[in-house]
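Order emerges. One example.
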Amino acid sequence: ESGGRGSGAGEASHVRAHTHAHTHRERGSMAGAIKYTVVVPAYKESGNLEPLITQVFDALRAAGGMDTATELIVVDDNSRDGSEEIVEELAGRGLPCRILVRTDERGLSSAVMRGFDEAQGDALLCMDADLQHPPAKVAELLQALRDGAEFVIGTRYGEGTSISEDWPVHRRVISATARMMARPLTPLSDPMTGFFGIQKAKYKGAKNVNSIGFKICMELYVKAGIRNHREVPFLFGVRNEGESKLTGAVIVHYLLHLKDLYMFRYPVAFPAVVAVGVLFALYLLWCFLSLLF
């Protein structure tokens, strides 16, 4: 399913938005100071939110006072696990964070888009809530956007990167295979990453964005017509709290997502490639049957 850029994020949805004691006038004056927005999609991540948010703003403060120009939005899919109270308590301490609780919509990609749609900043960044994306790298990604990159990713691969030894072997194999399958679509070394940023103008100009699924980074890179990007290496850690969202259904959705992106990027060539692939598979089957009989 796909539609206009806001097809998933713009649908009617019951959302409980929580800020800390901002009047409309105060929010308007603050909006002029906000240059960067960090969006954190979340579901059942209450155990990670306080360390994540405090570490993000500590790192931004250390990077020349970027914390005063940054807001953080948690988009929560109605976890009912105390996440609202945690974010409200942090906002009460003066941290510029808020939470949007969606009560009749689900999904990571649409959550990211909802956060981007609500953003006050012109530089938009997405990161996971599970602390596998290091808060210390947030400033570097935002600075890349500030310096003119249309798109930036935190990458787990390439020179200067590493993955925790505790990350399961099967997850490494799945990731490597998925990256190889996406290579004709994008030069990104890590198109599967959930740690990425985009200029708001490029996000707003993205066409026919599919908000279904998990790989919104690759979706936006392709659909926004990105011409230049930066990559920031980081150590990919293991999850501290909560459970992994990777399931068989997610893998199937990824394959269907790839099919849609190939049709978008190569509308003329894609049917021919599929036909050749089917013929090759039939040829291999014929060779196998010939050996048996």
The mean pLDDT is 81. The longest strand covers residues 36-42.
